[in-house]
Amino acid sequence: MSRHADEPPEGGAPPSWHPDTVAVRASVPRTPYGEHSEALFLSSSFVQHDARSAAARFAGDEDGFIYSRFSNPSVAAMETRLAALEGAQAALATASGMGAITLLMLGLLQAGDHVVCSRSVFGSTIKLLGDIFGKFGVETSFVSQTDVREWKAAMRPGRTRLLFAETPSNPLTEVCDIAALAALAHDGGALLVVDNCFCSPALQRPLDFGADIVMHSGTKFLDGQGRTLAGALCGTRELIEGKLLPVQRSAGISLSPFNAWVVHKGMETLALRVREQSARALELALWLEQQPAVARVYYPGLVSHPQHALAMAQQSGQGGAVLSFDLGADGPEQARERAFALIDATRLCSITANFGDTRTTITHPASTSHGRLSEAQRQAAGIGQGLIRIGVGLEHPSDLQADLAPGLRAAGA
């Protein structure tokens, strides 16, 4: 039977399609009803043709949807689109970004294994790897995000299974050399995992630089409007379907069909949003560098950023939509008070620890996203009490500057 010209092809997207086209067309095949906007399948289970078909599908001998804990058309559509955008063979959706990391560890590690991780990653990732999985005999060494020599020195022959990086990092926007870490991992018989939620595939595709697995918090830019929680892992079919899907099937770290549908639709405007938000973030970062109260701005799009050249090479020439800045102060207590006062003086920015929204957010990392870490862990990660993070949205830059200006004047007084 012939297919209508705009119906998604089998496998999501042909290699000739531009990423902008992939973002709006890659999906699962339409139903017989011919819907133009992808259908939402709010069903916990799926009826089989007969008992033999049911047995074959449960055994994995026949393709087909069975039970929404591990197979649902709405979730499959989201996975298909994200895999195509990342240039991956397959993707697996989870209930959150942290759920994706949990599934990754459960599927690939066992007691006695070792992980090397950047100490600059999201605070919950540090807690999960260092504390929770540590209880089950998985050891993690935390190293400098940017010093490949530290990564190499931390590796343990025969035991190191994963290298885990987040680039740019949260919240200091440190950029690691993905290709260098991939080579190091592969030389040591390990896999490189890259958290790509700061850039999304709109700006950066870690698999193109040699990474083995890309992890996402779809809660951020993939959704793009702060509506839902979601996570995902992208990689080869062998890793995703052979190693991780069987664990999800039993453990139930699953994304709901509705949330998958929301993220699936959000990805249609991903590139447009991220490119525009990045441009506005750069304008805001340049303005912040000129403010007397600001001691330092952390943003890969700035020439002053230590990894600026690397970021421009890896991130399609854009810095992303998240930046941080530090307020100078005599001590941590004064720095915290200044940061709190500046945040409280804003009226347009939303005081919330999320980012990737169309609305600009502002937060104090030391007491929110990294608040559960010890002071020593925060200091090791370079997160001081005067640090403020902004997830730039789609408001006009002049309005954001006007919103921050009163607090900055007070902080510099």
Structure commentary:
By secondary structure, the protein is of the alpha/beta class. It has two domains: 19-269, Aspartate Aminotransferase, domain 2, CATH 3.40.640; 272-412, Alpha-Beta Complex (Aspartate Aminotransferase, domain 1). It is 38% helix and 14% strand. It is built from 14 helices and twelve strands. The strands form two sheets. Strands 1-7-6-5-4-2-3 form a seven-stranded mixed beta sheet, with helices on both faces. The protein has a five-stranded mixed beta sheet with strand order 8-9-12-11-10. The chain is globular, with a radius of gyration of 22 Å. It starts with 18 loop residues before the first helix and ends with a helix.
Secondary structure topology:
Blueprint: H1 19-25, H2 51-59, H3 73-86, E1 90-94, H4 97-108, E2 114-118, H5 123-132, E3 139-143, H6 148-154, E4 160-166, H7 178-187, E5 191-195, E6 213-217, E7 231-235, H8 237-251, H9 257-266, H10 270-289, E8 294-298, H11 308-314, E9 322-327, H12 332-345, E10 350-351, E11 361-363, H13 375-380, E12 387-391, H14 397-412
Parallel strand pairs: 2-3, 2-4, 4-5, 5-6, 10-11
Antiparallel strand pairs: 1-7, 6-7, 8-9, 9-12, 11-12
Helix pairs in contact: 1-3, 3-9, 4-8, 12-14
